[in-house]
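Changelog entry: the 26S proteasome non-ATPase regulatory subunit 9 record was regenerated in this release. Current contents:
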Amino acid sequence: MAQPGGSRSVTVSDVQQLVKKKDELEAQIKACYELLESQKGVGMNEPLVDAEGFPRDDIDLYQVRATRHNIICLQNDHKALMKQVEEALHQLHAREKEKQARDEAEALAEARSQSQSLPQPFARVNAVSPGSPASDSGLQVDDEIVEFGSVNVNNFQSLQNIATVVQHSKGRPLSVTVIRSGRKVHMGLIPKHWAGKGLLG
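Regenerated structure tokens:
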């Protein structure tokens, strides 16, 4: 397994392996302490000689010395391993942050390119009368009109252009395209007489 900070980037499974190693080390250290405990409760610092300076004969001196040495080595390993775990986690978080920033930048770029690819509107709907042909077709206030029959941003001069198209399309479906909440919406509108004024409302 590559060490954190090596040439290969750290993965979640690397961190899991490091944590597993750490758990194993901690279990070994615990077992060593239990072993010392079994030797008349001798810890890491209790004297191994009696009051007269002779080696104690009530404990296994060799085993105590070996276990104490073992604990020191294991604790050093544990310390080094904890540093590795910390570095690995730091790398993972840093990479996660980078990924998040990249995703946000991509989403922003996509949104920008979509808004750039939307056609240019030439009029905005500021009122729709209830029950009118415009209302029946699904037209809404604040819809931005990009196509109204044959009229678009390239040939639109005044609202008279729309009035002319409406007169010519009376009783026949008229294709209308609007931009609503940043998206293109297509609808069919049939100009006709209704209870209110005009053919659209």
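The CA atoms of residues 24 and 186 lie 65 Å apart.
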